[in-house]
Backbone:
């Protein structure tokens, strides 16, 4: 088993098409097939089920893909650290963030670190909160900016700030001319409180806030990923929900944003870390994030 075989398998898993995987890797398609066959022989299990019409991962392939992503992440980190060591700088922090935290906290943090010339460098990713928590527990991340509260053994966390939940509808929706959506009006239309792979925090906040005002909403996570969720909102009269920051992005793409009333549900953003972490710069960054969040709350 070699690294190139792992790259071939990952490309097949991402494209679910041998021809596109070959193009992505600048390889001939027969070479892709041969590399996969050799990898499956080395692993001792069939990783990909291929027919004339479709390509799908087997259960063994799904597990294998999850594990080799850690190999690729470790390789990327090794390259980055080696380059930093060559320039006398070691210790890049691996930070992941959800969307609102990236806009409100991560961008100001990076500017602050550059201005102070701390020597701290970063490796950044945007991930959903559940995936961040799993990566922190595995030791694949140093810090995560997640929806909270965080209640995971082995992880520490600190509250940073809160952001409101908003509703999103397509431009041609009957509610598109509305600026504020009452909880009592939501059940009149199809609604999606989230999607299967997302954190349940937004869903929980909406259902709880509606209940406080005498409106019963049920969890309705119909789609499996963000792209499918957005497509359903763009093509149907369903109401969707997101953080205000994600809602502003949707508005820039032609969707309509509605505030929720009479009281807006709030989402807490926390910084989380593995209690076993040993990067000395983690505490410095946590302190700066807390200071930036306090400033954001005061001037926000």
Residues:
């Amino acid at each position: 088993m070699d690294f190139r075989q792992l790259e071939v398998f990952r490309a097949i898993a991402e494209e679910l098409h041998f021809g596109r995987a070959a193009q992505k890797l600048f390889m001939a398609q027969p070479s892709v097939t041969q590399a996969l066959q050799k990898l499956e022989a080395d692993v001792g299990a069939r990783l990909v089920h291929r027919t004339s019409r479709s390509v799908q991962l087997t259960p063994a392939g799904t597990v294998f893909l999850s594990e080799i992503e850690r190999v690729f992440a470790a390789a990327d980190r090794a390259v980055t650290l080696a380059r930093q060591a060559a320039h006398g700088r070691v210790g890049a922090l691996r930070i992941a963030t959800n969307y609102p935290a990236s806009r409100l906290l991560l961008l100001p943090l990076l500017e602050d670190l550059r201005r102070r010339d701390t020597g701290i460098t970063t490796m950044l990713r945007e991930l959903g909160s559940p995936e961040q928590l799993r990566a922190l527990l595995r030791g694949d991340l140093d810090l995560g900016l997640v929806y909270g509260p965080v209640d995971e053994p082995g992880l520490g966390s600190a509250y940073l700030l809160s952001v409101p939940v908003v509703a999103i509808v397509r431009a041609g929706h009957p509610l598109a001319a509305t600026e504020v959506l009452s909880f009592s009006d939501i059940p009149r239309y199809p609604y999606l409180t989230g999607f299967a792979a997302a954190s349940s925090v937004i869903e929980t906040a909406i259902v709880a806030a509606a209940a406080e005002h005498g409106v019963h909403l049920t969890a309705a996570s119909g789609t499996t990923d963000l792209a499918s969720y957005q497509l359903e909102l763009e093509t149907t009269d369903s109401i969707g929900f997101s953080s205000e920051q994600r809602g502003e992005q949707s508005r820039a793409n032609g969707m309509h944003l509605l505030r929720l009333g009479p009281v807006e549900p709030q989402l807490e953003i926390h910084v989380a870390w593995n209690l076993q972490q040993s990067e000395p710069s983690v505490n410095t960054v946590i302190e700066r994030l807390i200071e930036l969040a306090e400033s954001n709350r005061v001037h926000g």
